[in-house]
Amino acid sequence: MSIAQEIQRIQQELASTSARLVVVTKTRSIAELQETYATGLVDFGENRVQEMVEKQALLPSNIQWHQIGHLQTNKVKYIAPFVHLIHSVDSMKLLVEINQQAKKNQRIIPCLLQIYIAQEESKFGLSQDEVIQLLEDPIFSTLNHIRIVGLMGMASFTENVAQIKKEFQSLKSLFDFLKDNQVGVETGFVRWEEISMGMSGDYLVAAELGSTLVRVGSAIFGPRG
Ligand SMILES: *Cc1c(COP(=O)(O)O)cnc(C)c1O
């Protein structure tokens, strides 16, 4: 199937859910991104700063670039002028730098807090306690150039659907807790709206469990080389 057909198939599967599709374009060619853009989708996800910056310069300016991979503090400045949403905020240090670079660019940068939900050791992210600590830290209430708009999480890399469901459910419960208790909202810098969860192997499970943003690459373009 063509890129357009794969996208249409996934959009149909997601139609009965609240999840929107972020097309993960990392490692894909400019031609493939142009083909994606031609379908009308504008939410593109990249995990490497340099690659995002290079592609951004070559593609239409209405594309909404999502930073989905681990972000190093010293690279924030390169994406700050244009990034649409940073999914992978996992420390106060990073948030402080995003705030500073957003201020320099006279804008507010929307961010998600990445939560550690997988069993694996290698995934980045905050624990449930760390999120609450971060939002209640006096420093946080000074960061007026960022908006926390939700949470992001990556499930374990496993075929075990029960395990994946358990992990997504834990992210959804944390989100519901933060939203119901309006945690951080009094600062004016927090809105509990988005849950970024689900990739090619598990986007339908994630969408059924309340994801609002699924990040899908290989199910559209085929395996990465
Ligand atoms: C690569 C990547 C994805 C997409 O992975 P696929 O399996 O190709 O859909 C989603 N989220 C993050 C953070 C990624 O790095």
Please outline what is shown here.
With 225 residues, this protein is α/β, with parallel strands linked by helices. The protein is built from nine helices and eight strands. An eight-stranded parallel sheet has the order 7-6-5-4-3-2-1-8.
Walk me through this protein's architecture.
By secondary structure, the protein is α/β, with parallel strands linked by helices. The chain has one domain: TIM Barrel. Helices cover 38% and strands 20% of the residues. It is built from nine helices and eight strands. It has helices at 3-14, 30-37, 49-58, 76-79, 92-104, 128-136, 161-180, 203-208, 218-221; strands at 20-24, 43-46, 64-67, 85-89, 109-115, 146-153, 190-196, 213-216. An eight-stranded parallel beta sheet has the order 7-6-5-4-3-2-1-8. Helix 3 links the parallel strand 2 (43-46) and strand 3. The longest helix is centred in the C-terminal third of the chain and has 20 residues, at 161-180. The chain starts with a helix and ends with a helix. The site of pyridoxal-5'-phosphate has 13 residues, from strand 8 and helix 9.
